[in-house]
Specification:
Blueprint lengths: L1 E4 H12 L13 H16 L24 H11 L23 H16 L1 H18 L12 E3 L1 E2 L2 E2 L2 E7 L5 E7 L1 E2 L4 E2 L7 E3 L4 H24 L6 E4 L15
Parallel strand pairs: 1-10
Antiparallel strand pairs: 2-9, 3-4, 5-6, 7-8
Length: 254
């Protein structure tokens, strides 16, 4: 038996085996999403959409290869397709623990991303995780969680740092509403009493936050696939740990 890491096994299955012939194991759950992924992948690699339909495992079949895929590869493909019916939660762990957050802007950005993902629902998240795994196997690299240190700048108005002041107003029903008002007294040429500055990120962190969550989901999915395949493969023995076939984000999020 050949000893392989789970990510190396995925690369082998999706780039060397599941593209053989039709490589369609039947079933109904993954074919439509596999087709979506196949077109996305070809656009990323070639810049065009090729008028060919991928097979049920999300790869373009090699019609010149009359042989079928290895039985172990079929098991790998089924384990990946099974991810679409599983539950993946949005991680609550800090995503940018290596960066200071003096103004709370990083936490605010990450909280917004988490809310957006939770609103998608589990079915959409699970299908997304499945495409992450297929993409990493086909393209030979996992999600890239690298991120430059965030930069900050003061919120400006008319090209100058702005001043703000907190106010409260009472509504018709007696409820109190908080709001921000202009904090600079133009007549006196100075900030109003209690005025403060505000900061903002120079570049949004939504993309890096999404990538790091994808990375965590990808790692979790690899563990589930490995557990699913444990003891079922006829010609491969799985080892724990990521192989060199997939370039993984170097920083540990845990």
């Amino acid at each position: 038996m050949k000893t392989m890491s789970i990510d190396a096994l995925l690369v082998w299955a999706f780039t060397s085996e599941l593209c053989k012939g039709g490589a369609d194991s039947g079933g109904s759950g993954g074919a439509r999403w596999a087709q979506v992924w196949g077109h996305m992948r070809e656009m990323a690699e070639l810049g065009i959409v090729v008028d060919r339909s991928p097979n049920a495992f999300g790869v373009i079949p090699d019609i010149g290869d009359e042989g079928g895929p290895h039985p172990d590869a079929l098991l790998v493909g089924e384990a990946v397709r099974a991810l679409a019916a599983q539950t993946f939660t949005v991680p609550d762990m800090p995503l940018f623990h290596e960066f200071p957050d003096p103004h709370g802007l990083i936490a605010m950005e990450v909280d917004g991303v988490r809310r957006e993902l939770r609103q998608r629902g589990n079915a959409a998240i699970a299908r997304h995780v499945m495409t992450i795994v297929i993409g990493a196997a086909v393209l030979g690299r996992g999600p890239d969680g690298a991120c430059e240190p965030p930069r900050y700048r003061m919120v400006e108005k008319y090209g100058k740092p702005a001043w703000f002041v907190a106010r409260r107003m009472r509504g018709i029903s007696g409820e109190v509403h908080a709001y921000e008002d202009e904090g600079f007294d133009a007549a006196k040429g100075r900030p109003k009493r209690g005025a403060y500055r505000k900061w903002q990120l120079c570049e949004p962190l939504r993309g890096p936050a999404m990538a790091r969550i994808d990375l965590l989901w990808w790692r979790e999915a690899l563990g589930r696939i490995g557990a699913d395949l444990d003891g079922r493969l006829s010609a491969h023995r799985l080892v724990i740990g990521a192989g060199a076939e997939i370039e993984c984000f170097a920083h540990e999020l845990e």
